[in-house]
TrEMBL record:
Coiled coil: none annotated. Residues 151-315 form the Tyr recombinase domain. This is Tyrosine-type recombinase/integrase. SUPFAM superfamilies: DNA breaking-rejoining enzymes. It holds the Pfam family Phage_int_SAM_1. Keywords: DNA integration, DNA recombination, DNA-binding. PANTHER family: PHAGE INTEGRASE-RELATED, TYROSINE RECOMBINASE XERC. InterPro entries: DNA_brk_join_enz, Integrase-like_cat_sf, Integrase_catalytic, Integrase_recombinase_N, Integrase_SAM-like_N, Tyrosine_recombinase_XerCD.
Length: 316
């Protein structure tokens, strides 16, 4: 999936207000998907709240959503610059009944996928407004219903799979898994770790939105990292892209007999959050450890034991 080229962003943001409006209006009138993707990405990186700190992952996801919505609008007679007040809701309803096309998946699209597509379409209209092409906001009152199944149930933390997979990992891959499963790092944060980030028993983590935090490392993680040499002159310990790391980790899980249990790197991060909560019984400390800005987010990362308060209520 194509992201905005570095040469495209100045070309759009350096246009005069009139030229930008004309460019965006023409693209919307002709359902020019790729130009509308560029306008959306230019808005996200130059006009949104996060601006240049918008992550490549978000840009890619929203680009996918624009590439889905624009053809749908054309097919269903939606004028992008003058949409009907119910067109946003029509698109949401269509997404909710659309069959999933993911590998091995059946049934309708996941609620999280629907929400992502709606967020991307909403971003497109914010971008068109930013460009001065339209005041229409057809998704202002169109909302994707949340999935009633808690995320911790849909994608629970790994348990015994971690140690089993570690036995099948070569040293660098094992260090990556430990950074996620024991140090609680996002995989993007783990892949970005450099030798200079390691100081004693802690690692400096460059997280989402440019936030920096210091994370304690257990002795097992320290030992795994200590055995690695940098793969680049800048001191990077990992030279893989996300997809290269995922490919290697999936193979390790399969070799360990847990290929069916692979749920992504995030389940490893939830593993660390759950273990730390069970040791501390303190969501605030877990939140700081994981780098969450809200304890409410942390609650979605912790698998609570069933009947966790049985002893406390026994003598009520």
């Amino acid at each position: 999936m194509t992201l905005l080229r570095s040469s495209d962003l100045p070309a759009l943001t350096d246009l005069s207000d009139q030229d930008l409006r004309v460019r965006a209006a023409e693209a919307a009138s002709t359902y020019d998907v790729e130009t509308l993707v560029q306008v959306t990405q230019a808005y996200m990186t130059a006009g949104s709240r996060k601006g240049a700190r918008t992550s490549p992952k978000t840009l890619a996801a929203y680009s996918l959503a624009v590439r889905d919505f624009v053809p749908w609008a054309r097919e269903h007679g939606v004028q992008l610059l003058r949409p009907g007040r119910r067109d946003g809701g029509r698109y949401v309803a269509q997404l909710q009944t659309r069959p999933s096309q993911g590998r091995g998946r059946t049934g309708p699209l996941r609620a999280s996928t629907v929400a992502l597509y709606v967020a991307g379409a909403r971003a497109l209209y914010r971008a068109l407004h930013w460009a001065g092409a339209t005041e229409a906001q057809p998704f202002e009152d169109a909302h994707a219903p949340p999935d009633p199944t808690p995320g911790i149930v849909r994608n629970p933390p790994y348990t015994g799979e971690i140690d089993a997979a570690l036995e099948q990992c070569e040293p660098r891959l094992a260090a990556l898994l430990l950074l996620c499963a024991h140090a609680g790092l996002r995989v993007s944060e783990a892949l970005g770790v450099k030798v200079g980030d390691l100081q004693g028993t802690q690692v400096t983590v460059h997280g989402k939105g440019g936030k920096i935090r210091r994370v304690p490392l257990g002795r097992r993680v320290r030992a795994a990292l200590g055995g690695l040499s940098p793969v680049h002159p800048d001191g990077s310990l990992f030279g893989w892209t996300y997809h290269q790391a995922k490919y290697r980790m999936v193979r390790a899980f399969r070799a360990a007999g847990h290929g069916h249990a692979w749920r992504g790197f995030h389940a490893a991060r939830k593993h660390s959050g759950t273990r730390l909560y069970r040791a501390t019984k303190d969501f605030t400390r877990v939140s700081v450890f994981l780098g969450h800005s809200s304890v409410d987010t942390t609650r979605r990362y912790v698998a609570l034991e069933e009947n966790d308060v049985q002893d406390e209520v026994e003598h009520f």
